[in-house]
Design a protein that fits this description.
Layout lengths: L21 E5 L6 H11 L4 E5 L5 H4 L4 H17 L4 E6 L14 H22 L5 E7 L2 E4 L2
Parallel strand pairs: 1-2, 1-3, 3-4
Antiparallel strand pairs: 4-5
This protein binds zinc ion (ZN).
Zinc ion binds next to loops.
Length: 148
Amino acid sequence: MATLTDPAVKFKSQSEHYTADACVVWCYDDRFYKLLKAFGKKQGFKNIDLVKVAGGAKALAGEAGADRDFVIGQVKTSVRLHGTKRVILMLHRDCGAYGGSKSFEDPEKERAYYESQLRAARDFVKKEAPAIPVDAYFADFDGLYLID
Ligand SMILES: [Zn+2]
């Protein structure tokens, strides 16, 4: 049996506190996890607070309710605890939380819908946390696209 002197995994975690380069709201669909790692590397992020939930920013684009309260609460807590510098919102193609690509007439309409959802989510976060810059990204199978 494991004891306090006999860890299941021996590993040195950083013990110093940090300022978060970003709070990232990302879908837990594992097909896009490597994209997140590549994005973080390109951005030079050292520390991020990752809110990884089904649908990514979907809850922030939707009606008031428990899901939206939970996700915006996580963002605000990140800012409070870690002085978070920016918020990154993500939605992706073929997201199960939206019924997958099969729910859309064609790939262009699917993307356009996600873009409108991302703008709605961004507007909501900006209203809730006006001091923090918010960027919204659409993740596709060929890369990550910043939404204007
Ligand atoms: Zn998803």
